[in-house]
Design goal:
Elements lengths: L2 H7 L26 H7 L11 H14 L3 E5 L2 H11 L6 E5 L4 H13 L3 E5 L5 H7 L4 E7 L11 H10 L3 E5 L17 E5 L13 E5 L2 H14 L5 H11 L2 H20 L4 E5 L9 H7 L6 E6 L4 H10 L15 E5 L16 E5 L5 H19 L1
Parallel strand pairs: 2-3, 2-4, 4-5, 5-6
Antiparallel strand pairs: 1-7, 6-7, 8-9, 9-11, 10-11
Helix pairs in contact: 3-9, 4-8, 6-7, 12-13
C-alpha cells in the first residue's frame, strides 16, 4: 500500500459485526480474565493499562506501517521518546555520539542526566560523513544519534553514511524523524535502527496532545526499547493515543498543504530586503540539500529565516504586530508560528556566526495570502520602529 492508503487503513478495528470505523478510546488500568487459561493467553497481549490498551495498539500499528519498521512503542512525549531510546542502549561507562544540531532538551539530557550516570557524550558536526563519524567512534560507543533536519538550523544528515559508521562499530543509529513525520523520509529503510518522532507535532496535527513514538527496525532492538519504557514506568493516555491516530488520518493532506504554504512563504521572504538568507532543506543553498533530494520525498512546513542585523526594539515590534503567526513553542499543528531562536547557545562542535537574528517559521494551513499579509504588516511595524 502507498503511504496515503496506510494512513487511512492502518490501525483500524478488526472486523466484527457492526464494528466502528475508528478504534474507540479504551481507558483502563486493570484487565480481568474469566479463566486461568484466558489469563495465560492474555499475558501475551493486553494485561494492564500501562502496557497499552487496544487504543494504543492501534496507533502503534499505524505508525509502524508508516515508518516501515518491526514494532512501535509509545512514550508520553517526543522528549521521552528520545531519552528512552538512548537509555535502552547505554549503561555506565558507555559513549554516545550526538549531533550538534539536536533538539536542546535532548542535549540537556545528555549533558546532565547521562553524565551523572557515567555516560559520556561527544557532539559531532551534523554534516559529518562516514569517515568523520568513524574517526569519533570508540570501543565503548553504543549509539549515534541523528536529527535530520536539525533543530533550528535544518542541516540534513547523511543517514546511510551514519548507519555504516555506527554499525561498523557495533553501535545503533537512532534518528529523530519528527520534521519528516515518517511521511517524507524513512530512516529505517536508510539503515537506522530506531526512528522516533514527537507525535505531538505532525502526527497529531492539532496542538492538543503530547505523544512520542519509537519505531524499531528489528525484534532485538524492539525488545530493548520495550524494556526501557517498561522499567521507566512510561504511560500514554488512551485519549492522547486516540487523538494522535485521528490526526494521522489526514497527515498526507495536511503535509501537502504545509509544504505548499512553506514553499510560497520561502519564495516571498527571499525577496524581502530585511532577510539575509532562508534555511530550508528544499533550497539548494541549505546545508545537506543534496542528501535531502536523495532521501526525502518532500519538505514539511518548518524552516528558518536569518534577518539582517536589527535592534531588539525593532524585532519586538515585528513580533508584536503578528496576528496569524503565533509566538509559541512546538510546531506541526494547523496554526502558523514564528519564534526568535538562538542556536548559538546550543552548539559545541560547530559554531553559529550569523550577524542577524534567526526566526523559525512554521507554515500552517491558513490562506497563503493572509499569511503574507500578516508578515507584511509585521515588517512594516519593524520599519517604523527603526525610524
Amino acid at each position: 500500500m502507498k503511504d496515503t492508503t496506510k494512513l487511512a487503513a492502518a490501525g483500524r478495528p478488526h472486523q466484527r459485526p457492526a464494528h466502528p470505523v475508528n478504534t474507540p478510546v479504551e481507558r483502563a488500568s486493570t484487565y480481568l480474565f474469566p479463566s486461568y487459561d484466558d489469563y495465560l493467553e492474555g499475558a501475551k497481549a493486553i494485561t494492564y493499562g500501562r502496557l497499552g490498551t487496544p487504543t494504543h495498539r492501534a496507533l502503534e500499528e499505524a505508525v509502524t506501517a508508516l515508518e516501515g519498521g518491526f514494532e512501535t512503542r509509545l512514550a508520553p512525549s517526543g522528549l521521552q521518546a528520545c531519552t528512552a531510546a538512548i537509555l535502552a542502549f547505554t549503561a555506565a561507562g558507555d559513549h554516545v555520539l550526538m549531533t550538534d544540531s539536536a533538539y536542546d532538551p535532548t542535549r540537556k539530557f545528555c549533558d546532565n542526566f547521562l553524565k551523572r550516570f557515567g555516560v559520556e557524550t561527544t557532539y559531532y558536526d551534523p554534516l559529518a560523513g562516514e569517515e568523520e563519524i568513524a574517526a569519533l567512534m570508540r570501543p565503548n560507543t553504543k549509539l549515534v544519534f541523528a536529527e535530520s533536519p536539525g533543530s533550528l538550523t535544518f542541516e540534513v544528515q547523511d543517514l546511510p553514511a551514519l548507519a555504516a559508521a555506527a554499525h561498523a562499530g557495533a553501535a545503533k543509529l537512532i534518528v529523530d524523524n519528527t520534521w519528516a513525520a515518517g511521511y517524507f523520509c524513512k530512516p529505517i529503510a536508510l539503515g537506522a535502527d530506531v526512528s522516533l518522532q514527537a507525535a505531538t507535532k505532525y502526527l497529531a496535527g492539532h496542538s492538543d496532545c503530547l505523544v512520542g513514538t519509537i519505531t524499531s527496525a528489528d525484534e532485538q532492538t524492539a525488545h530493548k526499547i520495550f524494556k526501557a519504557l517498561l522499567q521507566l514506568g512510561s504511560n500514554v493516555s488512551a485519549d492522547d493515543a486516540y487523538l494522535a491516530q485521528r490526526g494521522m488520518r489526514t497527515l498526507s493532506t495536511r503535509l501537502d498543504r504545509h509544504q505548499q504554504n512553506a514553499d510560497e512563504l520561502v519564495k516571498w521572504l527571499r525577496k524581502r530586503d530585511e532577510v539575509a538568507r532562508i534555511i530550508h532543506p528544499a533550497l539548494k543553498s541549505c546545508p545537506g540539500h543534496a542528501v535531502w533530494k536523495r532521501d526525502f520525498t518532500g519538505a514539511s512546513g518548518l524552516f528558518g529565516a536569518v534577518l539582517k542585523p536589527v535592534p531588539l526594539p525593532a524585532l519586538k515590534a515585528f513580533f508584536n504586530a503578528l496576528k496569524l503567526f503565533g509566538m509559541g513553542f512546538s510546531w506541526g499543528g494547523f496554526e502558523s508560528l514564528c519564534l526568535h531562536v538562538h542556536p548559538e547557545k546550543h552548539r559545541s562542535a560547530t559554531e553559529w556566526n550569523e550577524e542577524g537574528p534567526l526566526l523559525r517559521f512554521h507554515a500552517g494551513l491558513e490562506d497563503i495570502g493572509d499569511l503574507k499579509g500578516d508578515l507584511e504588516r509585521a515588517f512594516a511595524a519593524m520599519a517604523r520602529a527603526l525610524k
